[in-house]
Amino acid sequence: MSELLIDVGNSAVKWAVCHGLNLKSQRHSGSFSDLAEAMWTSAKGDSTVWIASVRDEQSDQVLVSELHAVGFSNVHLCGTAQKEDGLLNSYAEPSRMGADRWFAMLGARACKRGPLLVIDAGSAVTCDLVASDGRHLGGYIFPGPALMEAALQSNTQKVRYSDSLKLALDPGQSTAECVASGISVAMLGAIKQVCDQYPAHQVIFTGGAASGLNAVGLVGDWRPDLVLEGLLSRAHGTEVAFAT
Q: Is 100 annotated in the active site?
């Protein structure tokens, strides 16, 4: 039987059908009802579904209900743990850590060992430090590009433009370019500060806003499906090893 994995972010949803360790993800932008139908069709019948979500309880229950409605009988809404596969949560209340961060760290440890800096850049950017023995040393959370842009547009009267933004480090020569460059410098500067503070930690990064980080100078291992890889570790109930 195949495993189905769903990564529900604040603004995007990714899912995958897995056979063994073969994982090929796709994005979904429609309703949870459409997602459930697409997954049922791809799975060709009942399969176990594993979900990591950062949305509220009501949204999560809608998704679970839609999956049950199309025929999935074994659906797991997965949260963080105090300890799992050698990864030790630093939070006094482990359940308060976002599931995306926990599963990104699990996924990172499934493909690399040693001290790790796990970066997930989406609506928010999270940077989590993991020691070589699996201890979570703590982390950082700050706004991602879309939130920075929204803050400027909603709290100023004349920062206005119609162009879409593209990450860049050169000084801008239009308002849109200036905002894009400012966001890039702010995000990369924050990440670089953490990298410089912990130079022995290997950088692994993921997230919808992370794909452009290589272009603006971030050196590390780009793993677009890191959260899903962590979910697959949970599904297997033991440590797995992904190709690096």
A: yes
> Residue 44's domain spans which residues?
3-77
**Please, are residues 185 and 169 in contact by the beta-carbon 8 Å criterion?**
yes
Has residue 97 been placed in a domain?
A: no
Complete edge-to-edge strand list for the sheet that includes strand 202-206: 136-143, 124-130, 116-121, 202-206, 221-222
Strand partners, 48: 3, 74
Report pLDDT digits (tens) over 19-77.
877 788 999 999 999 999 999 999 877 789 999 999 999 999 999 999 999 999 999 99
Please state the pTM of the whole predicted model: 0.91
Question: Does 124 fall in a domain?
Answer: yes
Q: Out of 46, 60, 85, 100, which one is annotated catalytic? A: 100
Q: Are residues 72 and 150 in the same domain?
A: no
CA dihedral 38, 9, 224, 196 (to 10 degrees): 180
CA 60 – CA 58 distance, rounded (Å):
5
Q: Can you tell me the distance from the alpha carbon of 168 to that of 180, in angstroms, rounded to the nearest whole number? A: 6
| CATH (domain of 188) | 3.30.420.40
Q: Is residue 211 part of a domain?
A: yes
